[in-house]
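INTERNAL AUDIT FORM
Audit reference: QA-55
Scope: verify that the stored structure record matches its stored sequence.
Auditor: D.O.
Record contents follow.
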Amino acid sequence: MCAMEPVAIVAHRGSSRIAPENTLPAFELAWEEGADAIEGDFHLTRDGHIVCIHDDDTKRVAGKRMLIRDSTLDELRKLDVGRYRGEKYKGAFIPTIEEVFSTIPARKKIYIEIKSKGAIVPRLFEEIKRSGLRHEQVIVISFNGEVIRECKRKALQSKAFWVCEFKRNESGEIEPSLETVLETLKRIKADGLSSNWGIINESFARSVIKHGYGFHVWTVDDLEMARQCIKWGVRSVTTNVPGYMKENLDLS
């Protein structure tokens, strides 16, 4: 029997507590800090390029609002998405997925969060193939279950996780319910679940794991909470402070 891999520390949008999120400086800093993987958000531009940015538009990080789906790569490249984090990062630009892939060391991984709808999937497969990355280095994640199902239907050889944000309803019950989660994971043929950590408990997490799905949490910057989640059996912890987590967690 193969030994289980240590819990992975995933840099949320790169080392985003320090550097401007979803930029090459943020990803490069994450690698310097020892992150096991990076997580980035990806959209499809009007002219068919896949770019790394979280929001549907550029207002929050660039100060100027441009919709990603209505803009070309050349138009987006003219924006400065680093200055908001200080002069040190002035001139940082919105990278393409190819440029993000090029930063990944040989034994490290990337969590690709798909923000666009299904039209991005064929192009994403092309980019993954062109990258030369091994299948085990790439994990596709999305809040959109149909995107995950489309990826698996098209024979994505890498793992794909459904991203779900849990909340409590007026009665204090967790939504979506465990039953709904398990039904969704099965229907879309996901390999695992990636969720926020503040609502679910150990019983919920272990139930998902018991049914054969990997369990992953975001965004955890508190050391004790990270330790708690690891005790529950999570396989990765996504954090804004990867260096801090790597220095202070015993993940051997």
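Auditor finding: record pair retrieved intact. DSSP finds ten helices and eleven strands in the chain.
Action required: none
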